Amino acid sequence: MNEGLDAYRALEAKQQPQWPDLAAVQKVSEELSSQPPLVFAGEADQLRARLAAAARGEAFLLQGGDCAETFEAATADKIRDRVKTLLQMAVVLTYGASMPVIKVGRMAGQFAKPRSSDTETRDGVTLPAYRGDLVNGYDFTPESRAVDPNRLTRGYHVSASTLNLIRAFTQGGFADLRQVHEWNKGFVRTPANQRYESLAAEIDRALKFMEACGVDHTALTQTEFYVSHEALLLDYERPLVRIDSRTGLPYGTSGHMLWIGERTRDLDGAHVELLSRLRNPIGVKLGPTASVDDALRLIEKLDPEREPGRLTFITRMGAGKIRDVLPGLLEGVRDSGAQPLWITDPMHGNGITTETGYKTRRFDDVMDELRGFFEAHREVGTFPGGIHVELTGDDVTECLGGSENIDEATLATRYESLCDPRLNHRQSLELAFQVAEELKKLKH
Ligand SMILES: O=C[C@H](O)[C@H](O)COP(=O)(O)O
Ligand SMILES: C=C(OP(=O)(O)O)C(=O)O
What we know:
There is one protein chain. By secondary structure, the chain is of the alpha/beta class. The protein has helices at residues 22-33, 41-55, 76-97, 142-145, 150-171, 191-212, 234-237, 270-276, 292-302, 322-336, 363-380, 408-411, 425-443; strands at 60-65, 101-105, 119-122, 125-128, 226-230, 241-243, 250-252, 257-260, 282-286, 311-315, 341-344, 351-353, 359-361, 384-390. The chain has one domain: Aldolase class I (TIM Barrel, Alpha-Beta Barrel). α1 (22-33) runs parallel beside α5 (150-171), α3 (76-97) packs across α5 and α10 packs parallel to α11. The structure holds erythose-4-phosphate and phosphoenolpyruvate. One of its GO terms (molecular function) is 3-deoxy-7-phosphoheptulonate synthase activity.
């Protein structure tokens, strides 16, 4: 199995930077190959087992984080607020659905972006498009936009420190369920936060009751938290493949779960080939043009053994299309006997650009796609196993609507994303409450 790890090199690899100096890339690649793994094979196996439960309808996956992480924003405060937001959403979902929630950040590696165009033009000046901090800089100057392989090593180190902090937060007491009120502190008071506060009070009461009954809560003091990113940049992913000493099998050690994007999921492309060799749980984005045949071939290539939890399909159809497209896809896959985990990304099919040039999404469209996802699964009898959302713990104004009613004029006030718009903290909580409602319906 391990001999084929480099077979991808003979295939077309889309969305890769045109490195000017291949010797420099080789040097970086050797350096990365000698670094310790960021995650361990056993953790990836554990996540696979958790995802298998979600595919069976016994758990729910919450996957979220920045569209594009940046080196500069990898600060303790920003990482903490993203983790807090995910923990709060997980509490809302767990309590609402009475079901374990698997927490996976789009974090500690989400540094490379596929782009529609190789270049960007501003006021008559054309430069290479920004492809994420792992490749080039965002500032619109020739120096900053030049691709630089040394960014791969920097990305590795920033991922390591991000992951270190995430592990400290989630294992060191910060994620203790008795901190459920604390996670809400520091965020502006909104209807969603107040609703969260009442839920936290109920959880508190339940915990005190358990304590009074002498129940041991050690299990609640820590939480499992995994990291994931789009495995886009093969010159980063390949050197971080390691052979697991327990089994002799290869794992991508840049993150627990790796996914293949909508633009790079070609069956005969390099991304599908490389990830087919790795033992991690693998995600694949499926947009509105994905056919049943595409899905079945991806299953055959990426999950020939039909291993529970191995494959997650992340659908991103767009609110206007999901009800037409998704049921047929679900039926076709169900009828083949395969049982991948199905989750929804209600963000990527709903992008719009305002007249003033802001890339944005309407919160209402995001919610509509979410409802469409639950409806499609209800219709076909399959399990809607999770959500994949671009979000931040920061108070940004990037997506339109939500209870604070962000309008086009407000977008400019705190638009910080370097690529696509994210839900801010309160929009994320609002979304979690609505998903919890949908999950409750499943129980009845
Ligand atoms: O996050 C997804 C893609 O990288 C992004 O939507 C591409 O954006 P573009 O169309 O501006 O290149
Ligand atoms: C690029 C992304 O999505 P998609 O592949 O679905 O366009 C993403 O999730 O960052």
